[in-house]
Amino acid sequence: MTDPNIPVTEDELHAYVDNELPAERRGDVEAWLAAHPDDAARVQSWRAMAETLHARYDAVLDEAVPKRLELERLVRQPRRWVYGAVAATLMAFIAGGGVGWIARGAAATPSAFQSFTLDALDAHRLYVVEVRHPVEVPGSERDHLQQWLTKRCGWDVRAPDLTGLKLVGGRLLPGPSGPASFLMYESTSGERFTVYTAKAKTEATQMRYAVQGSDGALFWADRGVAYVVSGGTDRTRLTQVAQSVYDQMEKNGG
Amino acid sequence: MTAFRQSVEAMIPALRRYARALVRDTDIADDLVQDTLVRALRSERLFLGGDVRSWLYTILTNLNKNRRRSLARRPAFMPLLDNNADASGTEAEGRDIERALSTLVEEQRSVLLLVMLEGMSYREVADIQGVPIGTVMSRLARARAHVRASIEGQRPTLRRVK
Fold this sequence. Notes:
By secondary structure, chain A is an alpha+beta fold.
C-alpha cells in the first residue's frame, strides 16, 4: 500500500493518463485530483489532446494503402531514391587506384553530404547550360580568380589543371556555412565538369557517389574542405576527373 | 507470404498515421513509410523474432531524424495566410493540433505521437528512441505542456478547461 498523503508528482500524473501507473497508486492519484483542480485540469487537457490527435489522424487508418506501399511491389522493385526531396543515391564509393579513401568520420555525416552534394548539383545544372555567362571570372584570368576566391572563401582555392579540360572560369556561391567556390571546366567536345568547394564541418570523409537525373557527382572532404565534382553520368570519366582534382589538392595542401 | 511479411503488412496503416502526424506532408509521410518498408524487407532474414511493431517504428523514427537533419538548414515553408481561419469544431481543433505539433522539437513530437496516438508504452518508446525511460517521460511532459500552451494560446476562449 502506498500512502495517500504522499504528494502526487507530475510524472505520476502522466503515468496515470497513459495507464503506466501501478494499480495500487491509481486511487491515490484520483483522490489527489479531486482535491487539486489545477492538476485535474491538466489531466483533462491531456485527455482532450489525445482525443484531438485521434480525431485528426485516425482517418489515415481507413485510407486505401497507396500502390507504392504494397509489399509485393516493394520486394520486386525497391525504391532507389531515398526521399523525393533529397533525391541522391548514396553509395559507399571505393575508388580504384590511389584515390583518397579516407574513412575517418565517414558515416558520421551522411546528411551533410546529401545537402552539400545537392547544392553542388543545383549549381552545376544551373550554370553548365549557360553559353554566354557561365562564370563570373573567366579562366583566362586564372591568377586573379584564385586570389579572389581564396580571399573570399578563407582557404587556398586553386583551380587544378585537368588533362583534356580547359578552365572556363569560376564563381563565388553561397555554401552551407559560408562562401563556396565554383569552378567550371570544359572538354573540346563541350562536356562540362564543375568543382564546388566549401568549408566542411567534418575534417575528412571517404569519397561518395551520387546520381540525380542526368548528372553525377563525387563528394569528399579533406582537411576541413568539402569537394563535389559534378559532371555527366559516366562514372568512370567522372572518377578520372575527381581523382585528378584530388591528387592536385593533395599536392597543393602538402 | 511469410508470417514476417504479414505482420509488416498489417502495420502499414498505423505507420502511415504516425508518419502523417510526424511530418504533416502526405507524400513525404508515405515516402518515409515506403523507405521503412524497404529497409524492413531487406532485413527480413536478419530479423530474429521480437516485436515487429516496435522495430518498424524505430526504423521510421530514425529515417525521419536523418531526413530532418539533412533538411535542417533549408528554410521552412509556412503558409502565409491561414485560409479558413474561422473553421469550427473538429476541423479547427485538428488544425490547431497540427500547428502545435509542428512547433515541437523532433524527439518530443515523436514521443508524444508514439504514446498518445500509437499507444506505445514508455518502455517501448525508450527502446525506439534509444534513451532511458526518464528521458521519455521528461520529453513527454515537455511536449504536452508545449502543445497545451500552444493550443490555448491560439484559441483562448474555446479552450478554457473547466
